[in-house]
Amino acid sequence: MPESAAPRTHPTATDASAAPDAPAAPPALKVGQVLRARRTITDEDIVAFAELAGDRGRHHLPEHGRPMAHGLLTASLATEIGGRFHFIARRMSWEFLRPVWSGDTITAEVTVRALGETRSGTAVELDVEIDNQDGETVLRGESTGVIRH
Q: pTM of the entire structure?
């Protein structure tokens, strides 16, 4: 990434302080802990996701007006957070409440609801809420999975 380019996500108080490209130790998780990530959705993001997913519905394409982000593109902000602590999802449930448009800045808050030990590692339950720049909740969900030892 060129030095002048800004990263798409911005660390917050509960995020690792390492640069986005540097490997960082996963945070030690605690029940009630909230992890955050922020991203501004661009036309380029939406077009790239449309190509990757094969979903080229006209409401996602810039030539048909202001493009709407794919729901799973919005949800991927939460999966970015899970990647910080090597979370392997076993189940995800999303409720899409409002559209996210190109130019919107969304913030994901992932709250650790429960932790437990299993044979394969640490069982994790997460609650997810993603809000837009106006403070409106655009997505709510939950996920369960494991962090392998």
A: 0.81
Please write the tens of the pLDDT for every residue from 82-133: 999 999 999 999 999 999 999 999 999 999 999 999 999 999 999 999 999 9
One-character DSSP codes across 44-85 = HHHHHHHHHH----GGGSGGGSSPBPPHHHHHHHHHHHHHHT
Length of the chain: 149
Check if the beta carbon of residue 79 is closer than 8 Å to that of residue 88: no
Give the whole-angstrom CA distance, residue 61 versus residue 98: 18
Q: Could you give the CA distance from residue 105 to residue 33 in angstroms, rounded to a whole number? A: 23
DSSP 2: -
* Burial letters 133-143, b for 16+ CB under 10 A, else e: eeeeebbebbb
Q: How far apart are CA 14 and CA 121, in angstroms?
A: 23
| DSSP strands (E only) in the chain | 34-40, 88-96, 105-118, 121-131, 137-148
